[in-house]
Fold this protein.
Amino acid sequence: MAGQGGRRAARASAALVPALVPAALAVALGLWGIGRQDSMWRDESVTYQVAHRSTGELRHLLGHIDAVHGLYYLLMHALFALWDGGPLALRLPSVLATAVAAAGVGVTGARLAGRRTGVLAGLVFVLLPVTQQYAQEGRSYALVTAAVTWATYLFVRGTGSARRRWWAGYAAVLALACRLHEFAVLALAAHALTLWRLRVPRRVLHRWAVASAAVLAALLPLAVVSARQADRQLGWLGRPSTGQWLAYGAVAAVCALLARLLLPRGPVRAGGDGGITRDGGGRDGEGIRDDGDGGDEADGGDHGDSGRRTLVWLGLWLAVAPAGLLMTVSLAEPLYLDRYVIYGMTGAALLAGAALDRALAARFRVAPAVRVPAACLAAVTAVAVLLPWSLSVRSPQSRKDDVVAVSRAVRDLARPGDAVLFLPARRREWLLSRPRLYAGLDDLALAGSPAASGTLEGTELPAATIRRRLLAACRVVALADPAGQPLDPYPQEAVKRDVLRRRFEVCARTRVHGAQVILYAPAGRCAR
């Protein structure tokens, strides 16, 4: 009895390896350089200042804009109420969510193709530069990735089991992902395409359809509200650029090549969670096994050809379908940003993990004299490729701007009571997360504060009023985009630029990453 208990404990411990090893690395990498050289970019500043509003002010905001991020803001509001830990508190949820996502990738890979594949897939996911970037970002995208990853694991369990609990869990976790960001719903397309390629039984399709309907029903209220806010929320987006299409094409081509190399040849051997299909399948119950207590192996899966086939199709569609669909829709209605669908990288990691597993299996058949140098060369190459990327995403230059650097430049140039002007108005965000500094300046164009107006950056006065107030100012600190950026055509923005050009001169200019801070005075009065 004691021997059997020890063996069960050993199997249980081994089953945790694909989850714990990637998660531990994710935490270590996430905490490395989490301060990002004391910088914060504009989107993180939005999270910081919005999460510090009262619940009433949050409800007011979400009724006007940013409802798509509403649940995330509420979670961050609760966190800051318990612990106002500055940038560390802002980014720590993303670090932990990335660890949860890495564990999900690991257990999914292990379920379908064995522990080694799971560990490797989880490690690949953690080491991806895009994963490292959003693991240290005070936004919702790492949390969305974690929820989609575990919904995908529950999807795998549901397709390999007759039990409804997996589908109930799948619906609940994917609905949570969609409430964190509505474009998580595109994971449904990847899962649907996976089921189509695997020719699953009708009972599986029915249960997936019911679960998907529940997800869509949970998402519907948010979708209705965010559709009304779309012009204000996404009006600045353009259609996908040539560079974005090329990057997507490169990822899709690599994933398709890996899928082709990894697909088992010949008839499919039915198995555990991988055994959701058989050649010529399609009758109710075929290929389904009630595996609630796990399989023979420590991770509970059967890793025959059917499991690997499931991994290949699931990984491929996760990597290409959400991004491809959003980019295609964006040709008519611009909606695409890569961060909206970064959870698709979990699919690429599954494919890469399976490919590395196959390479390692081949390596063990090579003579030891070749094996060790090949392993060393591979390790050196991986470090040489990944280390520069890892260092880069931990620098302020990896983001569009740095609100901390902007605020320092303002503090150095401004005197208490100086006028401040934002070119354009949405750059007010650069100072909103520094309320003490902002409060000491006279915002010439502000009509309604962000909290009072239920907006992210406040509302501005009419152009004529801005002109009159600007002409009466003695010193103006202007916060502007770098030279060469497109100019907003709105009347308020045009009058700011016109008056500064005609009636003021530049006394000092400080350029920081993604911005410039310019001190203006009326012509001939800079020395005063």
